[in-house]
Design goal:
The complex is a heterodimer.
Chain A (H helix, E strand, L loop, with lengths): L2 E5 H11 L4 E4 L7 H11 L6 E4 L3 H13 L4 E6 H16 L5 E6 L13 H5 L6 E4 L3 H15 L8 E6 L7 E5 L3 H7 L15 E2 L9 H30 L7 E4 L6 E5 L3 H14 L4 E6 L1 E3 L3 H8 L4 E6 L10 H8 L8 E6 L9 H12 L6 E2 L11
Helix pairs in contact in A: 1-2, 1-6, 3-4, 6-8
Chain B lengths: L8 E2 L2 H4 L8 E5 L9 H5 L5 E5 L2 E4 L9 H5 L5 E5 L3
Antiparallel strand pairs in B: 2-5, 3-4
């Protein structure tokens, strides 16, 4: 296995290419990333045999992969920010029709005001769509996650779409050493896609038909039940990956120095790397700090999180998203993990890094400082006081 | 009955789904002033209007949702919508 110094987007494109997708569809204009650009190059150069469909919008891109997936093709798309929002209607349909599409959501802010810098407000908006959502910490994980994503999605007991979320710019536009997956290795890990149901003139079927009050609720029940079942599958696929490739970036969650920690920071995505550095610094000074990465956000691994954190005194949840009119999203889900349990740690929530605001070592130190104070509501961290009339 | 994955069904579900039960207003084809223009048949969104003979059209109440488009489009005002009491 060789390590290549490569841009995050290109690494993801190369991994997707060895997954042998039959159909790739995307809208190639802003907001978009090099993932799609590189895949189109690979197709144009004849290096991969996928059908590449250029469309007039993200709504159409999602519709093309929906249709193609229904015929039994392995399909892939990628988008980000506003483009992602335009896809949302179709995303619900893809999940409802139980089509194992894999897409990358490059996490970026949404308008208005126009801003396509990194945060996670786009994908968080679709958290109830029935898609499995996995969040990558670094480019190696983002790249590896796509191979795992197809295996999870196409598992005959799951048959749900999987969204790989990776931070825009911080990961997609950064160059990192990445161990790329060869065609041979990918073929060994990922069996060909053979769905039980697919559209063919030989056996006419209707997908996404009208279902009245007599059966709609059951379709929702099945997706919820399958989401619960996918907790085990996501975990197993990460283990399979570890066995074949020797790399393990966590299954449902990953922990770093949590076992004996009194304070644990909880987060998703690339921010985990920054926090790990701070954990190391604070550990060297004798502070018992750790970090928990939520890798699978949907399904939400309540039991695993409880098991990992039930000994902890203080939790600080940092997130790059906000539910306007409510506050932090992840923090409230973490709080719900402890509902009705005998011991509840102090849980603080911090909203930061919106619209590409840098999350620096100082920002995280501020989070830790605030956590030491009394339990409080969720707070925005890193606000420019001059802009909000603070001075 | 078993619900298949994603409510995937054998083709032809639009026949099984008898949308006539949704109806509040019922079109009455009087077949008196009809000039045989066929607009009712063309515009019916359910495709449930058929021609019996020239200047004589009828509607399949099993699927007619009572939208009233046929009555609205009828060039001779020969279709009447009446409240359907059940």
């Amino acid at each position: 296995m060789s390590t290549t110094f490569i841009e995050g987007s290109v690494a993801v494109a190369k991994t997707v290419s060895v997954c042998r997708p039959h159909v790739i569809s995307a809208y190639p204009i802003t907001p978009q990333t090099h993932i799609i650009e590189h895949l189109s190059e690979l197709v144009a150069n004849g290096e991969i045999k996928s059908e590449y469909v250029n469309v007039e919008s993200e709504h159409s891109a999602a519709s093309v992969v929906l249709g193609a997936s229904a015929t039994g093709a392995r399909t892939y798309t990628a988008t980000t920010s506003q483009g992602f929002l335009l896809m949302i209607e179709v995303l619900f349909n893809i999940a409802g029709m139980r089509l194992p599409v894999v897409m990358t959501c490059v996490n970026r802010a949404v308008s208005a005001p126009i801003n396509i810098w990194n945060d996670q407000q786009d994908s968080m908006t679709a958290r109830d769509s029935g898609w499995i959502q996995l969040y990558a910490e670094d480019n190696q994980e983002a790249s590896d996650m796509h191979l795992q994503a197809f295996k999870i999605a196409e598992n005959k007991d799951i048959m749900l779409p999987v969204m790989v979320c990776m931070d825009g710019f911080v990961l997609t536009h950064s160059f990192d050493p990445v161990e790329l997956i060869s065609q041979e290795q990918a073929d060994k890990f990922l069996p060909p896609f053979k769905p039980e149901y697919y559209l063919t003139p030989k056996n006419p079927l209707s997908m996404g038909t009208m279902v009245g009050p007599e059966a709609y609720m059951e379709t929702r029940y099945f997706i919820e039940k399958t989401m619960r079942a996918s907790l085990q599958v996501i975990s197993d696929v990460a283990t399979d990956f570890h066995n074949q490739f020797g790399r393990f970036q966590g299954g449902l969650i990953d922990t770093y120095k949590v076992e004996d920690a009194t304070l644990v920071l909880v987060a998703m995505g690339s921010i985990i790397g920054t926090i790990k550095d701070i954990v190391d610094d604070l550990r060297a000074k004798g502070q018992k700090v750790g970090v928990l990465k939520v890798r699978s956000y949907r399904p939400f691994p309540k039991d695993e999180i409880y098991k990992a954190l039930n000994h902890v005194k203080e939790i600080a949840v940092v997130e790059k998203a906000v539910s306007l009119g409510y506050g932090g999203i992840l923090v409230n889900e973490i709080k719900s993990v402890f509902y009705g349990k005998p011991k509840t740690p102090k849980i603080n929530g911090f909203i930061l890094g919106l619209g590409g605001r840098d999350v620096t070592v100082d920002t995280i130190h501020q989070v830790i400082k605030e956590t030491a104070k009394a339990a409080s509501e969720e707070k925005f961290v890193g606000l420019n006081e001059a802009l909000i009339g603070g001075k | 009955m078993r619900l298949d994955l994603g409510a995937i069904a054998k083709a032809g579900t639009s026949k099984a789904n008898q949308t006539g039960s949704w109806r509040n207003y019922k079109p009455i084809f009087h077949q008196v002033k009809c000039i045989g223009c066929g607009l009712c048949k063309i515009y019916c969104p359910e495709g449930c209007v058929t021609m019996i003979e020239k200047k004589k059209y009828t509607v399949d109440y099993t699927y007619c949702k009572g939208c009233g488009i046929c009555a609205e489009e009828c060039s001779s005002s020969d279709i009447e919508m009446i409240v359907e009491e059940k």
